[in-house]
What we know:
Layout: H1 6-26, H2 34-64, H3 70-74, E1 107-108, E2 118-124, E3 131-137, E4 154-158, H4 167-170, H5 174-184, E5 191-195, E6 209-210, E7 214-215, H6 216-231, E8 241-246, H7 248-259, E9 266-270, H8 288-293, H9 296-301, E10 310-315, H10 321-330, E11 336-341, H11 348-367, H12 433-438
Parallel strand pairs: 4-5, 4-8, 8-9, 9-10, 10-11
Antiparallel strand pairs: 1-2, 2-3, 3-5, 6-7
Amino acid sequence: xxxxxxxxxxxxxxxxxxxxxxxxxxxxxxxxxxxxxxxxxxxxxxxxxxxxxxxxxxxxxxxxxxxxxxxxxxxxxxxxxxxxxxxxxxxxxxxxxxxxxxxxxxxxxxxxxxxxxxxxxxxxxxxxxxxxxxxxxxxxxxxxxxxxxxxxxxxxxxxxxxxxxxxxxxxxxxxxxxxxxxxxxxxxxxxxxxxxxxxxxxxxxxxxxxxxxxxxxxxxxxxxxxxxxxxxxxxxxxxxxxxxxxxxxxxxxxxxxxxxxxxxxxxxxxxxxxxxxxxxxxxxxxxxxxxxxxxxxxxxxxxxxxxxxxxxxxxxxxxxxxxxxxxxxxxxxxxxxxxxxxxxxxxxxxxxxxxxxxxxxxxxxxxxxxxxxxxxxxxxxxxxxxxxxxxxxxxxxxxxxxxxxxxxxxxxxxxxxxxxxxxxxxxxxxxxxxxxxxx
Length: 439
């Protein structure tokens, strides 16, 4: 029986009720020596307590998407077939563009808790040596004949640790919350992709490549990304890709974006951390050199050239907010870091409330045609890539008042347009095909 879902939860409730009734029915009817009767009564009480705890655990697990299977819970699941040294770029010297298309078979997900329109595939990574599930949801405009020639921007969704790739759709209700906002035009029509990030049982990979153990970074930034491009009308440039995560997934979102501005232009980090040691089970925290190299703050400070990326950090105090401020202080143009203080603590109920606002932030950043405000034309999906002077490091604390300056030309979903206080300082003109697609 599956760990998640209604059948096991109902079974746990039934067993807990029986366990609670047993002492009432048998307490005075027990026979035999005092020691035996005492042991049986103690056993019945313990059994009732254990089953009650089980019900609470299953309810919490189903709500927060912590463990997806018995293997995840017991720490025995392993999704790594091989973990060779793939080099600094994570490709192992192979040109991804030269590989044949990774045509993938998808099946609809029949899970009311995750919402409708979600499809699932088991992907065998050709570069990473990882084999695991990936969930994909397409925006309402995707099947609209008016957009049959459009490519759509993509957001890769990363869960915390422990965590399930279902959690964004189940616990955070991302598609349920965003679909009406996409139809109304408040949020851009993003393809949402949620790959498995728990690959080594009870060990957090830190979304890193560690030869001999796991190539999680290549799994997420190459194999999953290329599979989406090969199977859907998805943007194939960094300007059309973002990565979002919460908790350990937020750390990964920042790390992947700083490391690969050629693959991702935007990141959303909710309650994230910079130092991998913040997660006790982190593989990257075990070795001092790896711990240093996997810290987004160190990566940003030591970058030979400041990456052209835009990232949003949300949280409160040391739970994501101060980490974002540290990155903002280290950022140099064209890197832009926005920071928002969010109350609520390190919990699912906080992150689920943030979903609409962080995706509205992402939509505005895409409309700015890259980093900062700019003029752009084109027909390709996602935000445009621009030339010229891009925005400097921006900041947000509770609002979208980020500073941005720059003009650029490039190709994008359409010409950029911007209105209102959320533009930052800058200039933008024209009409937006991205905005039209949102409608």
